[in-house]
Design brief:
single chain; alpha/beta; 280 residues; elongated
């Protein structure tokens, strides 16, 4: 019989040998998922033997991880801003640095704010759903070019009790160019094509390419969006757009050319340039 302790240690070593970071954490998360238990609960069950069917299931999950499939896709969830979001292939896995956008909105707006917001390229709905929950009187529109992200966003909104509106479109092109929104947020594609091949296998081989690569110069999509955003923000309305760590200067200049004001770059938790903030 295989104990929980032995399973975790065996797969930790195999993950380390495959160059997978956070090897023990990965083994614990996947085993906890197979057991339908909390990861923290494993610490009190280390000498417990695993039933044959559970062991078979847990091994299959770990074999998938060994092929570099992201843990979040395997277990079907990812935490964002203290809440659990469903994720699946076809949507970008939410990153901690994106939480900074929510924090900035909370710094600038009161929780009883009643304006209108839109999340361009909603993915899993992490931003749209979180904004709707943190600002319960705000009306939030989630948009995406593809159907899968909108379906996943809708699922997450329903599970977490958020009220959203949805629209399938490319950027904001289908919305008339009038000052309609008080807040616009976006985590658009911004990876350079030549950098895409160098991404970690978990990202390059499994996450949707269209959510990562931002055109020939990395900021092509960002710049196009800025010109769509500017006429659709109300006077004084806020924009928060995530970007690559070397793109801050270019996007501040592009924001000014698009007619946005007070453009500045906000750093992420690692001290890297990460978010464009601007006003209409």
């Amino acid at each position: 019989m295989t104990s929980i302790r032995h399973f975790i240690e065996e797969w930790r070593e195999r993950f380390i040998g495959a160059g997978i970071e956070d090897a023990r954490l990965n083994a614990e998360l996947l085993l906890a998922h197979a057991l339908r238990a909390r990861r923290d609960d494993l610490l009190t069950r280390l000498d417990e033997s695993l039933p044959a069917e559970t062991l078979k299931h847990a091994n299959a999950l770990c074999e998938r991880r060994l092929k570099r499939e992201p843990v979040d896709y395997i277990i079907g969830r990812r935490e964002f801003f203290g809440r659990e979001f469903h994720v699946e292939p076809g949507v970008l896995i939410p990153r901690p640095e994106t939480e900074r956008i929510v924090e900035l909105a909370l710094e600038r707006l009161t929780r009883d704010f009643t304006g209108c917001a839109v999340d361009i390229g909603c993915g899993s709905g992490a931003l749209a759903v979180t904004l709707a929950l943190e600002f319960p009187r705000m009306r939030v529109l989630a948009t995406d070019l593809h159907a899968v992200p909108l379906d996943v966003t809708r699922r997450n909104a329903q599970a977490l009790g958020a009220r959203l509106w949805y629209a399938q479109m490319d950027g904001l092109a289908a919305i008339r160019p009038a000052p309609l929104f008080d807040l616009i947020v976006s985590n658009p594609p911004y990876v350079l094509p030549e950098d895409y091949a160098e991404l970690q296998p978990e990202v390059r081989d499994f996450e949707p390419r269209e959510a990562l690569v931002g055109g020939k110069d990395g900021i092509e999509i960002c710049v196009r969006l800025l010109h769509e955003i500017a006429p659709r923000l109300k006077p004084g309305g806020l924009l928060y757009m995530e970007h690559g760590m070397t793109q801050g200067n270019q996007l501040r200049e592009a924001a000014a050319r698009a007619g946005l004001k007070e453009a500045r770059t906000v750093k992420d938790y690692a001290g890297l340039d990460r978010i464009l903030e601007a006003r209409a």
